[in-house]
């Protein structure tokens, strides 16, 4: 086999077999002991710290960093996990540059924030490496809760409910738990099977059983769950993808970015995963960046992200955009897809430049074409499979601040629920808060 | 570049930066390197009597206190005086002095507390060509238990007696090194003066335990499961040393006694502070042990720049310049009113000033929902804690109210100088009237 980045069309094994491990290794390896001490030393232990306010799960950042600095990273981990049981994954995937680290006063002072994300990983990895679970269950309440969806929101809710003494059954459509942690994020952000080991570690709390291959509408109904359990928490994510409105989108080689990422995450041998010589990714979010960067890492010669609006409107952070360009991805702003060209398979993608007139996106009339053996659509996911009769708002299940839906006894959180950004950390916060509300509600009666 | 030539009790050196008697000055190899690096003088590691030299422990000799970024703030040692034969040291001193005639070479000495011991060794050491003697009455560990070092330095009568013996034995300057492990530094300083000392040097190290090993439950540095108190030095002791130097400099009886300032001198600025409080030169140890001999280059260039900027043409012009401004608390102006001012452009919104003031001081800083921190002049007592805890230098400053301006906290206008001695709350003051 002698494929290379130059091999035409879509092909696997573009790189030497031994290079894939290095290509997809940890983007930011865990800090070693010395690095962690130096990094923790920079924290000012701010009053009412802005980093803590910026964290959707309100982790007590100054406290956990001080605990690292004073030689008790296990205590630091506990501080983190009390607020965010998926603190290990969040340390890896959180866009800290737009959350805690953006708020860090040292960002203002010197343009160099305390490395909160990496310190969090140092603490959580230290505790998880001991395979120690820091929490114990409260006395059994005899109450049962069904959690639909074993992604970040579902796992967070299930853990908190189990900790409170309730018995939890989780249902998930996929064969593995973890949701987007397992299927959706770039592999270099959480290599080494971290998503699964985190789930296993989380389940050590006890009182949680997981049933895979179970999906609402396919053998599972909300009505039945309401009958069988004292409460239901929906964390079904956004299983659908938005359609691309352009000619020829049915041609071979035009794929959903989320499927490509899932395949990549589940692949046991990346050298067998085909990728185009010329890859075009359409979209402006983290999924677009993850798909583009990983295409490049698989050996694609040319990878281009095309986003219909300007750089400042892109939902992938500046940091993520820089990561993409540093890996050799080209980003074209202000261009929207017009048509996919090719004889059966896609060969070229045509775009029209855009500009915003009075806040409205309009084509300029000028078009261009990019060579495209493979096109990944990353233009957003949509809610599918929401139970009948539940109130929907802005395309998502309408929820209160504590996750209550329009139906009594049914809560929802994570990407499927209204409000909040579609981030892992937001999902964890919503799952946790809904669990607290479910607990309060179950214990009332 | 300013002329840094320093004259200290008749001993001239090209600059006022000497290395203190300590591990860095224990042998020819180190001292040559020090002089080549630019040090103005060296006090050779303390010599003991002839015969089998003392022995040192064979485990760790130092313990440390670290600040941010593992910066060494305090060092503690349990090393004794030189553990090399007297003859070897004397030969080496002779060679070094011959090769560096312009540098000060001082012999530190510690022998048993009898006239014969001192009077016999002093002339012998003088043959090396050394410029003077420093009597080690300071070491707090090891030698003190044998009746030497701090055991002498803690008894003013002994200081006077030994100093007199030494003065009778040599025409060279005799410097008495003082221990800080006493209650009043004036007493040993005056004793040295009575004994005929040409100068004092201070401080020697402070009795200390730097840390405790929480697994072995023993002090560090730990020797086979045991630890002992050692001598503390480094930046952490500088404030203690500055105060003791100033006390001697402003005491009428000792005001003219030359002082060699020792204790945490790390930068040119530290050195200048010792000079300003009455020292004629400084001795350095921990800074050299932390960073190597090269630091003297920064000290020379920094002091030189400072002198040029201030228009000082000699080190002596700095010496003692701050002494008239060291006073007793009772003479401080109680009508000097200041208020903290936070520069909002420099503020990074960490809120440490707020936490410090709100939790531990006078509740004089307000915090808005968008994290703007403002001093409330009607509550601020000008304690300076906010200035001290702020991580941004110069962000919080103290503004002095002019005479006649109303202090919002008391509602009274700022008046003329008035101190405690005449304050109405001072019972002693009232009864004196």
From TrEMBL, chain A:
GO terms for molecular function, please? dihydropyrimidine dehydrogenase (NAD+) activity; iron-sulfur cluster binding
| Reaction catalysed by this enzyme | 5,6-dihydrouracil + NAD(+) = uracil + NADH + H(+); 5,6-dihydrothymine + NAD(+) = thymine + NADH + H(+)
What are the record keywords, sorted? Answer: Oxidoreductase
Q: How does it assemble?
A: Heterotetramer of 2 PreA and 2 PreT subunits.
InterPro entries attached to this UniProt entry = DPD_II, FAD/NAD-bd_sf, FAD/NAD-binding_dom, Helical_ferredxn
What are the residue boundaries of the FAD/NAD(P)-binding domain, all occurrences included? 144-431
Summarizing the function annotation, the protein's role is: Involved in pyrimidine base degradation. Catalyzes physiologically the reduction of uracil to 5,6-dihydrouracil (DHU) by using NADH as a specific cosubstrate. It also catalyzes the reverse reaction and the reduction of thymine to 5,6-dihydrothymine (DHT).
**Keyword Oxidoreductase attached:** yes
Q: Which SUPFAM superfamilies match?
A: alpha-helical ferredoxin (SSF46548), Nucleotide-binding domain (SSF51971)
Q: What is this protein called?
A: dihydrouracil dehydrogenase (NAD(+))
Record domain Dihydroprymidine dehydrogenase: where: 22-131
E.C. number, please?
Answer: 1.3.1.1
Taxon lineage: Bacteria, Pseudomonadati, Pseudomonadota, Alphaproteobacteria, Rhodobacterales
Tell me the Pfam families matching this sequence. Answer: Fer4_20 (PF14691), Pyr_redox_2 (PF07992)
TrEMBL record, chain B:
Which EC numbers characterise this protein's activity in its record? 1.3.1.1
**Keywords, in A-Z order:** Iron, Iron-sulfur, Metal-binding, Oxidoreductase
Kindly state which reaction or reactions the protein catalyses.
5,6-dihydrouracil + NAD(+) = uracil + NADH + H(+); 5,6-dihydrothymine + NAD(+) = thymine + NADH + H(+)
Q: Which residues form the 4Fe-4S ferredoxin-type domain?
A: 338-370, 371-401
A Gene Ontology molecular function term of the record: metal ion binding
The terms describing its cellular component in GO are: cytoplasm
For this protein, the record's CDD domains field holds: DHPD_FMN
Q: Which PROSITE patterns match?
A: 4FE4S_FER_1, 4FE4S_FER_2
Q: Does the keyword Metal-binding apply?
A: yes
Q: Name one Pfam family in it.
A: DHO_dh
State the superkingdom. Answer: Bacteria
Its family?
Belongs to the dihydropyrimidine dehydrogenase family.
Q: Describe the task this protein carries out.
A: Involved in pyrimidine base degradation. Catalyzes physiologically the reduction of uracil to 5,6-dihydrouracil (DHU) by using NADH as a specific cosubstrate. It also catalyzes the reverse reaction and the reduction of thymine to 5,6-dihydrothymine (DHT).
Q: How does it assemble?
A: Heterotetramer of 2 PreA and 2 PreT subunits.
**NCBIfam families, A to Z:** PRK08318.1
State the protein's name: dihydrouracil dehydrogenase (NAD(+))
What organism does the UniProt record list as the source? Answer: Celeribacter baekdonensis B30
